[in-house]
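Quick one - inputs below.
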Amino acid sequence: MAASTLTEVARLAGVSPATASRVLNGSARIPGKDIADRVRQAAESLGYIPNAQAQGLAKSSSGLIGLIVHDIADPYFAAIARGVQEAAREQHKMVLLATTVGAPDSEKEAVAAFAARRADSIVIAGSRTSRAEDLEGNTELAAELDRYCRNGGHVSVIGHGIVGAAAADGYHVVNVPNEELAAHLATELATSREEDFVIVGGPEGLFTSDDRIRGFQRGLASAGLPAADVIRTDFTRAGGFEAGLALAARITASQPGTETKRLCIFAVNDVMAIGAAAALRSQGLRIPRDAAVAGFDDIETLRDFRPALSTVHLPLEEIGRQAASRAAGPSADDAGSPPITGQVILRRSTEVAHPTSAESVA
Amino acid sequence: MAASTLTEVARLAGVSPATASRVLNGSARIPGKDIADRVRQAAESLGYIPNAQAQGLAKSSSGLIGLIVHDIADPYFAAIARGVQEAAREQHKMVLLATTVGAPDSEKEAVAAFAARRADSIVIAGSRTSRAEDLEGNTELAAELDRYCRNGGHVSVIGHGIVGAAAADGYHVVNVPNEELAAHLATELATSREEDFVIVGGPEGLFTSDDRIRGFQRGLASAGLPAADVIRTDFTRAGGFEAGLALAARITASQPGTETKRLCIFAVNDVMAIGAAAALRSQGLRIPRDAAVAGFDDIETLRDFRPALSTVHLPLEEIGRQAASRAAGPSADDAGSPPITGQVILRRSTEVAHPTSAESVA
DNA sequence: CTGTTAGCGCCTTCAA
DNA sequence: TTGAAGGCGCTAACAG
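Output:
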């Protein structure tokens, strides 16, 4: 027993399908008042639900927003997804989800799938990469997106634009000032401190990571400090943990006698920072006494972590929302939404050690 | 410039649309070898992407899985979503996301929207409620689901079944043994301890919460202990925090002289537990010294929280995956997937206070 | 094995 | 204002 159709409703109401359509979905005036009620009633009694596929086919638009993330369980992406979802709700659309593991070819597939479903727009979150091995994948992805745009689709990419993507119509980028913010964080951290800085970064070629590293180094430089060592590892908690272990060894080794500066560790995202902190702790080191740790993103779920993590707040939800609404066209706010900004937040994890202040909570 | 169609491909290849369809999508044999290649090449050169809407309309099935959650940014739901997403990928389907704030009527809308899109199946996560004020909403939701099922849809609900939903065809429930596990947690906690138990629960009528409360009380009873006080609050971190504040006052008040037992707080989910812990800490109390805290769910992102939180591990991802594949029909594993089980995990937050063990990490 | 003929359910000109 | 007719892109029966 398939769902009832518009035709059935029309028949029951004693009108033509066209009329029924106008009453139930169309936009133009339908003052048939008497007839309109009959149709509505018929629809109601039949439990009529319009077939979105058919509607979409007829007017070639689907009311779908495609969202591509690396992993929906990652709090970073989950927060963005929430923003996208909210925007979608406002636009009376639904979001179609695709998760790739950052692999460009898998992203390409997702774009093709969205294109097949005639998604009205696509939001791509998750960092772009410039690694040589991804070059081909990136090119194909760019081509796929380009085709999608040429067919009238709207794309908005969060962070960096797709490598090799021509600035086509309907192609937007929501810029996140990773570099500037990282620089800002570095200068804040460099102020009135005397410590060695180390950066725990993701794999080379990951834009988000590279931008943050570059920015941090720049900030250090502008504060007259030497460049920090950079440890490359996975862009995950596990990666942070691994790096943390190495750093713990380094700290422990330099303990005896030598007047050592405290280590200040900047992990390019919060999750890595937490991993690094866990590693230090597992080696009996304490934060911020033995080392300072800072992250990036200000993930909500991690805010109760102790010692409270210094980080850079990013309005993730707003980023997602903006990406989704920008792709919807310049409808609402012609002025365009305001650029994304972040904010350095210094908390306990990078406090200068005051031996006595045990209870100071950020 | 709209995307190219199958007809165009067919024309370019000099064959009929039907043939082209068979080559590009159909399943039956298409050994036209020579012709098949021509078609494929034509498709390639035109950048042909099948229109899923049209395909869906023609074969009345959409390749879509609808997922309903309260909030995709909540790590609990995000983890489930990951599981659903994985199952979807295996089924070569895509997931359509809808977030409700737990409001039955909003869930009803989501179901209708999924039905409109002819989703092949729907997964509903997020706790069911039995509050009087939700009765009407629940009934409508049940009706909507029932209709959806009658039209051939498959539904699987995580946790409790929808209140008032008749066991229709295609309606499945993925049971989560909340009560048993909570009971188990209680008995573990009750062993060799002498403390007062308090439960921080969600609003009355929330099945997930109520089940866990009931189970915990049962466990306490079977250990010969009196029932614990129950504090009702929001099913969120903020709720946990609020309750934690009240409890902190209670603890502080009873400090002087009176031989007081330590308080053991069971929050019905991890996020609430974290909130409660934060509240205690904000009042200068320490865990587990001044109070023990336990949660439920074993949220991954929270595992680095210190003191490590005792909790009940739930295979969230597997739950999502199972829900999605069960709804896909008894295709893969006829034996049906194994029932969901959890596991009590005792960590630092409920350790019996050993004044000297400062570095014992769970 | 391939082409032809009908729809799938809806919307949208175009007449009436 | 309402109805009739055609088409959105594809698939599924039939023919050939």
